[in-house]
Design a protein that fits this description.
With 261 residues, this protein is α/β, with parallel strands linked by helices. The protein folds into two domains: 180 residues, P-loop containing nucleotide triphosphate hydrolases (Rossmann fold, 3-Layer(aba) Sandwich), CATH 3.40.50; 68 residues, no CATH class. Helix content is 37%, strand content 24%. The strands form two sheets. The protein has a six-stranded mixed sheet, sandwiched between helices.
Length: 261
């Protein structure tokens, strides 16, 4: 299996009156069709890293390769899902219209747009809610609309920035299981940022632990769990051992970040 994404010695400085070094010498690879989760202290540059991979801004130094080509701008065949679904859905458009927005600039024939919209809505379990407006949907259902919008044009890479951070705990667990089912079906390359260690381990084939700002790669942990993961796997000794290992890596960084403010 080949590397889909290669990050080589990437650093990022936010320029200004008081320049801020957000990332320092970050290097890692993501294989094609792999699910990588990313955890780290608040402010360590996790979201910045996703923005760099998406081509939304350039690194200060180093380079990022997708399919062997250096990223120099927004790359095609990439979908993004953010935490605050209520800020990314258009309130005056229905669920299906919001999903269709993801195809607006792809120049697909009308029948192809309708087919992809229908397929994405069914994939995230929203069949029957196509004509509902965001205010008529629960938080979990609104986030499903965002995921469907990202999936509608069948991206090869899906970047997810704490997508379940704004929903309640019960809905979060349901969405985690649904996302794994979607990934197993579509086999998209996924990078998933979260603050929740248990979520990172449940979802990821590998977990990348980042150090405090300036963000660095502390360690990448392989998750030795079966690919079929019912929610009950979270109660197993094997799962909890990986949680302990990840937390032992992260604890020092979180405490140091808190001391430094």
């Amino acid at each position: 299996m080949s590397a889909k994404i290669v990050v080589e010695n990437v650093s990022k400085v936010y320029e200004g009156k008081n320049p801020l070094l957000a990332l320092k010498d970050v290097s890692f690879q993501v294989m094609e069709k792999e699910f990588l989760t990313i955890i780290g202290p608040s402010g360590c540059g996790k979201s910045t890293l996703l923005s760099l991979i998406a081509g939304l801004m350039p690194p200060t130094s180093g380079r990022i390769l997708v399919d062997g080509r250096e990223v120099s701008g927004v790359i095609p065949k990439l979908g993004m899902v953010f935490q605050h679904y209520n800020r990314t859905l258009l309130p005056w458009k229905t669920a299906s219209e919001n999903v269709r927005m993801g195809l607006k600039y792809q120049r697909y024939p009308k029948n192809e747009v309708e087919l992809r919209t229908k397929r994405a809505i069914e994939l995230v379990g929203l069949k029957g809610f196509e004509d509902k407006y965001p205010y008529e949907l629960s938080g979990g259902m609104q986030q499903r609309v965002c995921i469907a919008r990202a999936l509608a044009y069948e991206p090869e890479i899906l970047l997810m920035d704490e997508p379940f951070g704004s929903v309640d705990a019960q809905t979060r667990e349901v969405l985690q299981a649904e996302l794994l089912n979607i990934w197993r079906t579509k086999k998209t390359t996924v990078l998933f940022v979260t603050h929740d260690i248990r979520e990172a381990i449940y979802l990821g084939e590998k977990v990348m632990v980042m150090g405090r700002r300036p963000g660095t790669v502390k360690k990448i942990i392989s998750v030795d769990l079966p690919p079929e993961r019912p929610l009950e796997v979270k109660t197993t000794p094997e799962f909890n051992k990986i949680v302990e290992d990840a937390w032992s890596l992260l604890r020092e960084e979180v405490m140091a970040a808190a001391r430094e403010g």
